[in-house]
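Students often ask why we bother encoding 3D structure as a string. The short answer is that it lets us treat folding as translation between two languages. Here is a chain of 917 residues written in the first language.
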Amino acid sequence: MTRTHLLLRARAAACAAVTTAAGALMLANAAHGQAALKPAGTLDGHTDPVYTVSWSPDGKTIATGGFDNTVRLWNAATRKELRKYDGHTGLVLAVAIAPDGKRILSGSLDKTAKIWLYPASSPLKELPNLAVAAKSLALKPDGKQAVAGIGKVARVFDPATGVTVRDLAGATADVLAVAWSADGNTIAVGDAARAVRLYKAADGAPLGVIETPADAVNALAFLPNNTQIVSGGNDGNGRIWQLPVDAPRAGDAKGKINAAAATPDGAKLITASDKTVRIWNAADLALIKEVAGLEQPVVAVAMKADGGRFAVAYANKVISIREADGKEVKKTEPLPATVTALALRADGAQVAAAGDDKQIRVINVADGKVVKTLAGHGGRINALEYGPKDGNQLFSASADKLARLWDVNAGKSVRDFGGHEDGVTSLATTRDGSKLATGSLDKKVRIFNVGDGKLLLTAVGHAGAIRGAALSNDGNRLASSGDDNTTRFWDATNGRPLQVLPTGAPAAATSVLPDNARALAATADGKLHLWKPAATRVLAGHAGPILAVAVHPNGSQIYTSSADKTVKVFDPNNGNMIRSLEGHGDAVRAVAVTKDGQKALTGSNDKTLKIWATGDGRLLLTTPAQPAGVTSVAATLDNKTAVLGLGDGSLKLIDLTKAEPTLVERLAVPGLAQGAVVATAIAPDASTIVLASDDKTVRVWPFPSVDASKTLAGHAGQIYGAAWSRDGKLVATAAADKSCRIWDPEQGKQVRSIDNAHEAVVYAVGFSPKADVLATAGDDKLVKFWNVADGKELRRGTGHGAAVYCLAWSPDGGRVATGSVDKTIRIWNAADGKELFKLDGHPDDVYGLSFSPDGKKLASAGYAGNVVVWDVAAAPKIATKQLVAPTTQAYSVAWRPDGKQIAVAASDNKVYLFEVP
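And here it is in the second language, the structure alphabet:
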């Protein structure tokens, strides 16, 4: 039977089976001198005729079924579609909302009835009184707590109650990212001021702070090992951090540090504060020796490679050579110029001193005599360092923008290291002497190959002049300190910034310790800072900010999505890019990996979700364009469903088991928020969704039902009628196979079948209020009453001259109304099946009937589009007659539970709503 045939000729049952059932759509015209039905609006959204309609018990929502094979749910007040239920493969000919308002029953041409879970119209819980929008959220792995970034705090709350557990304070800017470790023990919080803060989940105790080089931390994700976390920032780089984060050590030089230097291997540090020199163990900042009461303020210091001897330059141009215990070995005569830099040869036999006269003097420690003068710089010399090989190499850094390598024995320059745009302030070589690092007033650090002077890389990121630079012994790490009150840690192999270490003051010296993992800085305010940076590697490749991060469940891949329209996949073990996922047409705002690790999900401002194979990066599917950009995505634990948060405040549920783009959308849930849904998280048991939106709310919603909870299969023909018992414990269906069946909706099982209930099609069915009697109507012109307990016929009503399409019980159970192709409505005494009276005057075939909640009125809908409201309280008469719309058929009618409106399902794909006078 075709849809056209059904529209024009077929007789399908659209009557309400329960007096509390209801529906929705709009009308026009009045008659018989009575007050007209006032149009109240239409429900627009079905793509084919709407055939059946039902109201919820509270009158707030309307369920409809139509020839587009869908069941839809509507907000009766706003007339907006709340949800679409797909699943029937044939026309939906009957729909009824359960008396408890929690389930919807539908019957279809596909020979099945389905029970759908009724969605909540409001959130289970909502975090109240948020002053600003939450920008991130994460669920604890067991789902019992959640954390949301709200302003400058991360709020931990119970999603079941909405009660705040605690606020995690400390951020100095808005919290943009939050993450919960897989073991549930640690919470990570990223903010707009580059910091990642770690907290103990049990009590909120701070566990450490990571300062990232990015100016904002937009995304965070823990690796499954719980000891590493990956961040994504505005600089386009991801970074992997090792946990736990070591607390920085501090030392106090008890005065402004005028000069500082480290041994070439970084094991010891010497500082000078006015007339006091201190020697420190760099590994733990333990004070080894304090030499106080020197004769002059110290302006420069240097140490022998093994730390056994040091040199100081006084403000009066004199250099003093001392043993590690402070005993003076030699003192020079005043030099021609004030000393600006010192260096001790590895064996301690020579000291090089740079003067503010742009010359370097090499002094023999044994007799204090100048043995070589090296001239050629065009500006003040700011730093000196002996090369590690044979003591004949000397490096210098000058205000003339150059670093220079000298042959001391020959007394001449070997090569220059250029490229800086301002004076060079500091320098350091690797232990093998193969690389040279230079820092400059131009805020940059450069690394050169010593052998040929070739520039290897430039590190950019400081906001102030560089005052110290040091390379690790293995040449893989670079530390630099500057006037921006930070020390920065870099990957010296590629120049990528690893971590920012706050110092609070400009640094006088910087060093990398022999373990190649820790950085040391002495700052002008007299403080020493020792860190073990948490950064292990940089994930580089994006050309724009990273907006989201996801980790493969087994930890083998890291996914970063970016404003550059791409998703990059990295190997966390070495930081190398595995592949780039390209194809989105706008910024990729969201990324997730299914729990089985088989699929990666990416959502973009281009309004699409893309699904990729994690094994080889193949694009498996692109969804049709959504109503707005995809701003967040999460996958259920069973890997079957993805929840998309959209920029218009709605959710979409996507079927991850489908391969055809047109079949993947399972459910649309509009209107959940007034702003973009910026973050979503799904409870492990898929019972709830936690969502944060731009409208300053964090809400906990029941997880939307996407499939029929039960499918009632067994009929051999299409189902025309469906009804609930008033207590919701039974449902009944009527079908073209001549049978009526009674079902247990909880179990989805058939209780009994009344076979051959009618001689042909059974069009309508309905329970009495007590659910002890079942009424049916059919193509054989009969109305029958059945004992629900045993399925036996009790009585029958005769009188109609043609097929009976619909029936309705009165609220008190005393009467049953039936409508027929004979254009009459008959009212029967339910107790004995006798006809009480007949309503003539309906201008067309009667397709739908519904008693008003008080039982005093009866609404009918006719095939030609007529809607009639009858006064059946006493002497029956027509109260109101109205046409739905010209050339439009009316198929079903239902009363709102308060009796103030009726809803009419119509052939023009609409449901009409009318106010009843």
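Translate back mentally: The chain has one helix and 84 strands. Keep this in mind for the problem set.
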